[in-house]
Amino acid sequence: MSDRKPVIVGAGPAGISAAVTLVAAGLTPIVLDEAPRSGGQIYRRPPPGFTRSRQALYGFEAAKARRLHEAFDALAGRIDYRPETLVWDMRGGALHCLSDGRSSEIAYRDLILATGARDRIIPFPGWTLPGIYTLGGAQIALKYQGCAIGRNIVFLGTGPLLYLVAYQYAKAGATVLAVLDTAPFAAKRRGLPGLLKGATTFAKGLWYLASLRARGIRLESGVGPIVAEGDTSVSALRYRAADGVEHRIACDGLAFGFGLSSETQLADLAEIPFRYDAVQQQFLPAREVSGRTPVAGIYLAGDGGGIAGADAAELSGERAALALLEDRGQAVDKPHLAAIERTLQRIAGFRAALETAFPFPADFAAAMADETILCRCEGVTAGEFRRAAAELGAAEVNRAKAFTRCGMGRCQGRVCGPAAAIVLAAALAVPPERIGRLRGQAPVKPIPLAVTA
Amino acid sequence: MSEHLTADVAIIGGGTAGCSTALHLRWRRASVVLLERGVCGSQASGVNYGGVRQQGRALAELPLARRSREMWSRLAGIVGTDCEFMTTGHIKLARSDADMGELEAYREAVRPYGLELELLGRNAIRARYEWLGDAAFGGSLCSEDGAANPRLVAPAFARAARAAGADIRENAEVTGIERDGGQFRLRTTDGLEIRAANLVNVAGAWGHEIAARFSESVPEDVIAPNMCVSEPLPYFMVPNFGVCGGSVYVRQIPRGNVIFGGGRGIADRERLRAYPVAAASLAAMQQAVALVPRLRHAQLIRSWTGIEGIMPDDIPVIGPSRTTEGLFHAFGFSGHGFQLGPVIGAVLSELILDGATPTPIEPFDIARFTLPAPANP
To answer: Which of A263, A303, A297, A277 is nearest to A415 (CA)?
Structure first.
């Protein structure tokens, strides 16, 4: 069945470059994507009829966005592209896809999973108030439909996206009141030598910072406990600055995030073994730099296999496609493979420096107040979760989920899972890798009961 | 590292049956060690539908089920929490005249056991449960049936047993079982060695493996009931229901989620894993929507399954071994053991300590598989 079409899940930078590579080798891949248009999160395209320029939408990345969009558009007729398609389950060589209210099966022999990433959040008191968005969500509002999440906005969290989104909002004309980074200034200095290796990316980061500073926007590092206030929606943010002084900022929009988590549910359903990644502080599916996984015929590309950013995603998509071709017995350009792998490894070094400079504030999660809602879907507080550990004897995250329902709601732990693992690990005084990870269960995202098969 | 323990009773299996047995034995001062390969309630006891149902059971099971039902009412007193047990009522729906006939006959058959069922015709059932769709032709209501949260029950029994002095060992897989000098000697992977005068085999889908070590070979197969749950909806459906033929069963919890099952997933008994199957979930969704049309607006958020042991005659093995003194079995609950879990502890503790139980269990004798059937006179 070597003639069976390879399947790519995801049409972000990784999926697109995988498709381009397979088409160049004479194959006709099936490309499945949840979004109505290709581009993924980073190069997301506005709906038809929206007229903001690529420059306005993507800034420094406009040229890359154009190249990738054009490359994908040029594949029309040479790939089997199915937008607005959710792969909700997979087993036994078949993907179960939801599209337009119908579920259908696609058999595969070779599969490239390019499922991308989502915001990583840590709950704080008030985080479920309307007007509070993730950084990625805030960026999508702006990029996709030209909407801002509020008029007077605070940006909070850590990671490069914090400064990028704040910059994009300021540039689009929103009032950015403050950018509050939980990472201490010292961490950024520690990460500096590694960051300098990613010179261009680093320079862009400096540009965003300088631009925010030039606009007179308050920038703070080492920000402590945070509380969002408001009755029907967010009206103010309270925080403790690095010097211990408490502040309160009135605002009607708040965007927050603490880096990204890989979307690994399909890799989990594919039974790829997972291991704990100390840099990313997440369990990740095992993959070689080539994208190969321990499961024959399944390849991982892009942030879905570990966060490395859009440039790495593009390269890893190409690399995974080349691995697929190699495994099908096609000749590939070996020096080119080696060059891709070298670049990917260099980017990985830069990522490690980024994680040093913008550390995921695990202590922030561990110190979550008992009354804070940890799982918003099921309304489970951090205190109830800790009680499951202490009184009910849950030594592992799936057990704590079973006792408390934390992670059992609409998001199936995609939102609360990372923070919940840290809360539990801290409550039990064990390292997070001992807590395990929430097992993936179909459907990957909710599907309607009225779906027709 | 080795550790030696001596107990009156060793129990293999930390499901509800095993944990309840440990608790009942402790109430009567017997010393108990329970060995569970994973964590208590992580297999069939913890991942089932959660129905606490008498209606529809084989008549042979009714004395046990009646006694267990009485225990469910007292659960908070027994284990310190009600495990979300609710007397919701259970309806068995008919979808045809033939189904109604079957329900009527069943109602007559269960009367001697003290189980009261109310038959509802088409108009009555639609008037009482306006959420039912056209597919419902009639049904039988057992008002004293209910449901509980299966994730909580076995762990609650385990905690209660431990508090009562039982030695409950989780992550303790039994690697060796011997009988010598009138005692059982067990060894676990982490070097624990136990001597006990009595051994209880409540190992669920793996019960036949223990039985086989004592020359009692039984045909226990496995099933993986395919389960689904929706996002929370406003609470509208108090009773839980199944259908004649058993192809779908549905309940809503006060939290709002609708839990339903139907069809089979994949059970991998060797790797201790079970997988829900998309086709089974889709078929159950379709049937659930046909029976309760308002579910068409809901979203499925999760599917799951678990490994359950099933016997060829769909009723469990319960009772003393026919080959080995001091060995007692209770396994192969065939997909409907959850309701029986609590009473199994009572019955096994009586068998062990008194040599007999007042609850009739003859139909579950392991001899029905291991001994030749008696010749007709």
So the answer is: A263
Examine residue B342 and say whether the peptide bond preceding it is cis (omega within 30 degrees of 0). no
Helix, strand, coil share of chain A (percent; to 5): 40, 20, 40
> Tokens 């058959």 sit at which residue?
B109
Do A446 and B303 count as a contact with CB atoms less than 8 A apart? no
Q: Which of A212, A219, A235 is nearest to A150 (CA)?
A: A235
**Is the Cβ of B274 closer than 8 Å to some Cβ of chain A?**
no
Q: What are phi and psi of B171, to 5 degrees?
A: 55, 35
- Nearest CB to A103; choose among B151, B266, B282: B282
Q: Residue B375, Cα to own-chain centre: how many angstroms? A: 33
* Bridge partner list, B329: B201, B319
Q: Which residue of A has its CA nearest to B290?
A: A450
Amino acid of residue A69: H
C-alpha–C-alpha distance, residues A183 and A157, integer Å? 8
Of B20, B14, B90, B11, the closest CA to residue B50 belongs to B90
Q: What is the ipTM of this complex?
A: 0.93
How many Å apart are CA B218 and CA B209, to the nearest integer? 9
What pTM was computed for the model? 0.94
Quote the CA–CA distance of B145 and B136 in Å, as a whole number: 20
DSSP string, A363-428: HHHHT--TTSEEETTTTEEHHHHHHHHHTS---SHHHHHHHH-TT-STTTTTTTHHHHHHHHHHHH
Which of these, A240, A392, A39, lies nearest to B160 by C-alpha position?
A392
Average pLDDT rounded to a whole number, residues B70-87? 98
B238 CB within 8 Å of a chain A CB: no
A360 by Cβ neighbours in 10 Å (0-12 / 13-18 / 19+) ranks as: buried
How many other C-beta atoms are found inside a 10 Å radius of the C-beta of residue A178? 20
Report yes or no: B287 at the A interface, CB cutoff 8 Å. no
Query: Which tens digit of pLDDT belongs to each residue from A397-447?
Result: 999 999 999 999 999 999 999 999 999 999 999 999 999 999 989 999 999
Percent of chain A with pLDDT over 90: 79
**What 3-state DSSP class applies to A435?**
coil
Closest residue by Cα to residue A102 from A447, A352, A435, A423: A447
A236 touches chain B (CB under 8 A): no
Name the strand (E) or helix (H) holding A186.
helix A185-197
